[in-house]
Design a protein that fits this description.
This protein is an alpha/beta fold and 333 residues long. Helices cover 36% and strands 7% of the residues.
Length: 333
């Protein structure tokens, strides 16, 4: 029996026992090559520090590493930190204009966007699936979301970039997935981030967990993605996460979720305290000095279908399905 058929026959419950019985569908076992698209307001400045790999940034300049990563998509945070290369660039090129000013040129540029041509290139390259960043850490949504962001006005695209690309790639026989930044949203937490502990402790609380779940459920219902690719972590407790997974699998049985779903715990909440972050930073700074990897391997969560080593590789053969997650340079965006 094909695994796809097995998955369709099951009804999933919001428990680890039920969800961990979910099998990776055959289409994903066979896919081999996918396209990951980081495209958003950060694509206008398209700038980051030339600090080598992300791991090298943390090894060589830990106290400023988050603002000095090579990731262009982290531009909004980087320009908030005066000592960063991005802040100097932003002052010289954009005269310290608000990040929000990139919204208009990005939307105007959509007049030239042809999703059918993109899909054609992806298919010609041999890709079997496409994952689009629907909302990165800056919180800007690439679809006209009905879920209101009360912290940032007009912070979504009136043009349905997600829907248009989904239609285009499916017309070419490719699977479509959505990336969502569940763990970080700089419209809900505007604190400048410098260190790893800053980053780990910056997952917003308050009304953000409800917002993130509502948007994720909206993406599932509206676009029926074959891949649900969350980033960083999840802002709600495990029980809420398991209900989301069960509803997703029951809605789209031949689907998969990645491994960046660490649920909110008391330990993670404690990192919102500055003194606790200082203690963790002291430990991590020393630990980073002995690391040799150029990337990141996320911590294994209670449930996932596949792992996502980022600019990194496992040191042994993995029985768990995995996806090598990397850009065409040291940056994704």
């Amino acid at each position: 029996m094909r695994r796809d058929c097995y998955s369709r026959a099951m009804a999933y419950e919001p428990s680890l026992e039920s969800l961990n019985a979910h099998r990776v569908p055959q289409w994903y076992e066979d896919a081999k090559f996918g396209i990951f698209i980081h495209w958003g307001l950060f694509s206008i400045p398209a700038f980051a520090a030339k600090s080598g790999s992300i791991a090298e940034a943390f090894r060589n300049n830990y106290d400023l590493a988050v603002a000095q990563t090579p990731y262009c998509e982290w531009y909004w945070n980087a320009i908030k930190v005066p000592e960063s290369d991005s802040a100097r660039h932003h002052a010289e090129v954009y005269n310290n204009a608000p990040y929000e000013n990139f919204r208009e040129p990005f939307l105007n540029g959509l007049e030239q966007w042809k999703p059918d041509e993109w899909a054609g290139h992806f298919a010609d390259a041999g890709a079997k699936y496409v994952v689009l960043v629907t909302k990165h850490h800056d919180g800007f949504c690439l679809w006209p979301s009905a879920v209101q962001n009360r912290h940032q006005k007009d912070w979504s695209s009136p043009r349905d970039i997600v829907g248009e690309l989904a239609m285009a790639v499916r017309a070419r026989g490719l699977r479509f997935g959505v990336y969502y930044s569940g763990g970080i949203d700089w419209t809900f937490n505007r604190e400048p981030l410098r260190t790893m502990a800053d980053f780990m402790g910056s997952t917003p609380g308050g009304d953000y967990p409800t917002y993130a779940e509502a948007q994720t459920r909206e993406l599932i219902e509206r676009y029926q993605p074959s891949i649900l690719w969350n980033d960083i972590s999840w802002p709600a407790p495990l029980d809420d996460e398991l209900r989301l997974f069960a509803d997703y699998y029951n809605r789209i049985p031949d689907s998969v979720v990645n491994d960046r779903w660490l649920p909110m715990t008391q330990e993670r909440e404690a990192l919102r305290d500055l003194e606790r972050r200082k203690a963790l930073d002291a430990f991590l700074k020393e630990r980073m000095k002995t690391q040799t990897t150029k990337g990141v391997i996320p911590q294994l969560p209670p449930h996932c279908d596949f792992r996502t080593p980022e600019y990194a590789a496992f040191d042994r053969i993995s029985a768990k399905k995995w996806e090598a997650t990397r850009g065409m340079s040291h940056s994704f965006g």
